[in-house]
Amino acid sequence: MQAFDYLAPTTLAAVAAAAAQEDSKLLAGGQSLLQSMKLGLAAPAALIDLGNIVELRGIRVDARAVTIGACTTHAAVAASMELRAAIPALADLAGRIGDRQVRHRGTIGGSLANNDPAACWPAAVLGLGATVHTNKRALSAEDFFVGLYTTALNDGEIITAVSFPIPERAGWQKFRQPASRFALVGVFVGRGPAGVRVAVTGAGAHGVFRASELEARLAADWSAAALAGATVGAQDLNSDLHASAEYRAALIPVLAACAVG
Asked: What is the pTM of this model?
């Protein structure tokens, strides 16, 4: 790792000012960034630690939505009884990310900003039609995710929170790679204010995506049986040493049915 400056501002305004510095990176949990730096894949001139910004942490639940601060850890989401009562599927998802060390350091905002194509949180955000809030604007799930490791965030823009509309029903299932615990395929299903949505992670060549055929079936009949015989095309899916595109395609409707319950 090369030398770099380390900044630990205590206000969001100070973070925004520091983030304007050329070739700087925001540091949340560091579960992806620090590994990239160790491998020489990233070499920022400065790291801006978000750990001292109290307003970026915490979970708020009201009658219509659950709002999670960007620096809230996966472990905190999994442990929140209020959130578990409002959207159990989110707590389930957070509790199955990585291992204990990752869950106690990794954050929802860091995961979304990195937008790993096999990460869990993008499926929940897209599957519930959530809104990503930054220090400058609010972005719908569809507008936020752009491609592999790419989002609509501009230089210096900071995720502050994510708000999830409370659904009538929601569920999450993933088939994980046993070493990394990332999803070979993960499927989040939701029925609520944003309609019926099925979001898939780990499989798409361009990152998280919605499975429209499965959505249509579940809109007509919200049941696992409604997905019997459903297929997803393999042409835009990943093939790698862990699984072929065809294998991932076959997993998607199976996992979606399990998520519906």
From this structure: 0.94
